[in-house]
């Protein structure tokens, strides 16, 4: 039966009749299973009312870009995709669209509507708010502003909330933006609560066990080495320290202490990964409809499982992806388990570099990127990518090399922190990430630097296994045939991520019927997510997609595409008519 077979639709120059691909192409594929739907749990559907998956599909390729409800911008114009992807696609052509995704931390430098819009236009795929800083009211404004821009201007920026976590950090410096610690000055680190103002050269520490845990002679390291102190005396709750490496203290800077060259993990090793404040922030994030929650200082898979079941119980109408931040010494012992439990990971090099020797950070980065690719989880490389651009309009050559390396490793996403949150040149920093990504990706394709990465099976069921085989084969076919794009019709996004995992030469157009899935696909390498109501009839899905995309000038007759579907578990090769 033709509808149960894999279809190879030959290019128009050859015969246009359907030709079957023999199962030999995909050895593990058994035809009777081809019509099985993917059996992935979809705990919550979108908060929006997505077009029905049954019955006649609406003739509109729509993008309901807002996080909440609201009118669909441009719905009248029949087709709508993220305005920035569309522009990139038209400007650069199919093959040269950017594959690496960009995350920007929003802070005082970028929280205004115009600045947020400039970042969205500049290619920000995900806006990150860091709960270490700012009030709920501040974060709410930012999240709503992003949502409003999506709705009004046709962007599809996802929102990531990043928890504070409960590692040791300083207080907020009594409201000052920073404080300078000079060589040999004596500062007091204390767990005492002061009524403001703080006495001179006094720093609050958030961890009650601090004065008990440190010892005279310990080295106190601020923000992974921006400032260093030596503990010289303990007086009750106060710890007197002498500055040994002068520098700038910033509010809520992270603190670690070291004894005989090793990181001290005493009582603070028992601090909860998710503090009571973090739970309140998580409730806030769920209520505000964030797409991702990044968990700071993850030590084990349990905490991720715990949070995931909390979210599933609290949020039945939509999914939120949980991203594990790899930044603590303890996370390295349980790396695979943590990543497997999560929906993605972040190499949070800022704190990671404060917990392990700096020279080990690059190899950990490479390892995390590799494990994530193998386990099919998106990975973000974060912190200090363009640190000097907080102050200067041009990056250092070393920073460009660092960004290039992350792109070369084929991480899913790069992240700006201070550069976009409080730097002087957020847009320029984003432009650097964008242009370096595009350049390195092109070089990689032109020079055919294919890494031969083993992609182990990740399937949990036979049906998943079929999807995986189809995607792996499609990835190879796309490169061998030099196709212009992969099209994937996916309800849960799973098949789109399996294709992304192959890191094919061509871009992947991911059509999904859920706004929430669509926004989350924004984080994954090479995916251009569209929202589209589609049916089980691939022929009609394809024809409609072709005509809608052609109307928008996003594809042309003759373009060669491979189309996959996770309802039918099918694969077709065809020229756009
Ligand atoms: N919501 C915010 N409000 C005020 N300042 C912020 C905010 N978010 C970020 N920042 C500033 O930007 C800097 C860099 O951001 P980030 O790397 O996310 O935080 P951190 O330095 O705490 O790891 C912060 O140290 C802080 O000075
Ligand atoms: C991204 C990081 O986390 P945060 O900015 O929240 O400290 C990091 O430590 O690199
Ligand atoms: K954080
Ligand atoms: Mg951190």
From TrEMBL:
GO terms for cellular component: chloroplast stroma. GO terms for molecular function: ATP binding; kinase activity; magnesium ion binding; potassium ion binding; pyruvate kinase activity. Its cofactor is Mg(2+); K(+). Residues 98-429 form the Pyruvate kinase barrel domain. Gene3D superfamilies: Phosphoenolpyruvate-binding domains, PK beta-barrel domain-like, Pyruvate kinase, C-terminal domain. It catalyses: pyruvate + ATP = phosphoenolpyruvate + ADP + H(+). Pathway: Carbohydrate degradation; glycolysis; pyruvate from D-glyceraldehyde 3-phosphate: step 5/5. It is found in: Plastid, Chloroplast. The keyword Aminoacyl-tRNA synthetase does not apply. Its EC number is 2.7.1.40. The keyword Lyase does not apply. It holds the Pfam family PK. Residues 468-567 form the Pyruvate kinase C-terminal domain. Keywords: ATP-binding, Chloroplast, Glycolysis, Kinase, Magnesium, Metal-binding, Nucleotide-binding, Plastid, Potassium, Pyruvate, Transferase, Transit peptide. PANTHER family: PYRUVATE KINASE. Belongs to the pyruvate kinase family. This is Pyruvate kinase. It comes from Apostasia shenzhenica.
